[in-house]
Amino acid sequence: MEKATHIKPSLCALAAAGTLSAWQATAGAATGVTLYGVVDASVEYVNRVAASPASPNAGGSRIDMPNIGGLSASRWGLRGTEDLGSGMQALFVLEGGFFPDTGGLPSSGLFSRVAMVGLKHQFGQVTFGRQTTSMLDGLINFSPLRFAATYEPGIWWMGINYRESNMAKYTGQFGNVQAVAHYSFGTGVPALSTGNLLANGGAGEDPAHGKDNTAYGASVMYLDGVFGLGIGYDQWNPALTAGQTARVRKASVGGSYRNGPVKLLAGYRWNKSDFPNGNTLIRDDYWWAGINYQASPALTLSLAYFYANVKQGAAITTASPGNPPNMQQYTLLADYNFSKRTDVYVSVGYARNGGLSFDSAATAYSFNYPTMTGQKGMLGVITGVRHAF
């Protein structure tokens, strides 16, 4: 998981996440290249965590440094623009992740987060390459913790395909209204564990089976200084076997209201994921609500509640197949900003009837919170420092 924003909890576009210029080579007016990034390192305590998804009978407490970071996923990137005249610009973004605890790179590739190029005009921009989905772009501003890397079920919300390759995407900004639509000619993610067989490692485009691994979606968002509202739809057609496409559909709505130092956020996401034969892998409703309080110019306090009702489908907890007890999570976050670029934080999360961040087969155990047999609750405490450049 990740926090797709800069250090302050103010609203911004996902593509500008964590970005402050440290180096810029200017070739002319409105033309340049920027190196940017975020380093987020933390120490975490978690109780009642299984040794692995395959070993639910062994486990206990754990203290370590998560390689996914704390509030943000650590990353670095290059982005640039070129003025083409007549109000037209060319643009590109190359962004990759790294592990702050070891300095290593993920096996998914050097620029596995974003790799795109496009053109921008007053009527919007069209981009091509690996990018985030339209639903994420339209709903992320209504996330109570800004899509935090820990203790927010962001991948449960958006799906493991929230970044997609081979994508053509349109983004238009019309005053306070943003409209986004995308189509992927073929995308994939690593196969999920514990019987979730929708993904096959990312076969991507298949000329012989044009529908395999395709994806598309759209969103519309209104945002001003007080009110916000977003709605989005996402569909992914993964193929475990060539010519046999599954169907993963999500629709979400979110809103926000700001009054002085207080901001309220809430939303809902519908999900239905079906095997190629029509059987349901998972059908669930996901709800969230949160409050951000600017206690001082430097200190932000956030409280969030997340709830998932799995109505039918495959195993979500290691030991509870079918329709498990409804998962819930409470998260409290204190974030203190030393500057616009550096902050420290402490976050506490408590999950009921599942792992923290709703970690499960449905999220590919991306956060390493597998549950133990018979477990009812899981508590996590994380503290760290984050710097943007």
The strand count comes to 20
Radius of gyration: 20 Å
Number of domains: 1
**How many strands, what sense, and barrel or not for the largest sheet?**
16 strands, antiparallel, barrel
Proper CATH architecture: Beta Barrel
Name the CATH homologous superfamily.
Porin
What key attributes describe this structure?
Porin; two-stranded antiparallel sheet; 20 strands; 54% strand; disordered N terminus
Give your account of this protein's structure:
- The chain is an all-beta fold and 389 residues long.
- It has a single domain (14-388), classed as Porin (Beta Barrel), CATH 2.40.160.10.
- Residues 1-29 and 192-196 have low confidence and may be disordered.
- It starts with 22 loop residues before the first strand and ends with a strand.
- The chain is built from two helices and 20 strands.
- The longest helix has 6 residues, at 134-139.
- It has a 16-stranded antiparallel β-barrel.
- 3% of the residues lie in helices and 54% in strands.
- 43% of the residues are buried.
- The radius of gyration is 20 Å and the shape is globular.
- It has helices spanning 134-139, 154-158, and strands at residues 23-28, 31-52, 55-64, 75-85, 88-97, 114-121, 124-132, 163-174, 177-184, 214-223, 227-237, 239-241, 244-245, 247-259, 262-274, 280-294, 299-313, 327-337, 342-352, 377-388.
- A hairpin with a 2-residue loop joins β6 and β7.
- Keywords: Cell outer membrane, Ion transport, Membrane, Porin, Signal, Transmembrane, Transmembrane beta strand, Transport.
- This is Outer membrane porin protein.
- Residues 1-24 form the signal peptide.
- InterPro entries: Gram-neg_bact_OMP (IPR050298), Gram_neg_porin_domain (IPR033900), Porin_dom_sf (IPR023614), Porin_Neis (IPR002299).
- Homotrimer.
